[in-house]
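Risk mitigation, structural track. In case the binding assays with zinc ion fail to produce interpretable data, a predicted complex structure has been prepared as a fallback.
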Amino acid sequence: MKQVHLIPALEDNYIFCLQNGAEAVIVDPGDARPVLRFLQEQALTLSGILITHHHHDHIDGVPDLLSEFPAPVWIPAADQGRFEFGGTPLQEGDVLSLAGFQFQIWELPGHTLDHIAYIENSQKWIFSGDVLFGFGCGCLFEGTYEQAFTSLQRFRQLPPETKIYCTHEYTMANLKFLASLATTPLEEQKTKDLTKQMQTLLEQNGSTVPLHLKEQLEANPFLKTTSVPNFQTLRIKRNNF
Ligand SMILES: [Zn+2]
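Fallback model:
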């Protein structure tokens, strides 16, 4: 059976382990230790490492993982020079077959310029790093508002039942911001209900990830913005919140 395991790491990161039988594909290992422990416990072999962007909390575990398992690494083509451990560059439209999975590559600049996402169409999974979070989106460190807006809008092309594997657990903090945007009693109530629902999920599963695209399309204010200026205003508001 193909499944995704969440490996909590660092402060609030998730490293993803995609399992197919005894094979494992690891996404964004910011720390090698919890990954090595998990692979050992589950008796899995590392088939490959996927990187969404160059930030340290997504790549710092790669060298130690490679010294245990000499596995191939895939990286964004836009930024190959920044990865000391090398890797095979991927760009928009590429398709990668690995361990029985098939990943379609999207370039999603905004958070960083090199950011890519890995989409497993048959499973309806997207590994989208720091582009989109629960009811929020990633900060713009390198890209323009237009790039980030366009990258977020692309999620609309995916089937609504898609599961979004984002790298940080920011859902509750983002819901506080969402509550501050409510202008009617109905909106206030909706956000309250959503907060309660997510709190329960967090208590039961220890995580709100994967996110459900349908829910994000309905309630994530950054996905709901319809123009670059509106997106920009909202993002600045969030930065100052
Ligand atoms: Zn990042």
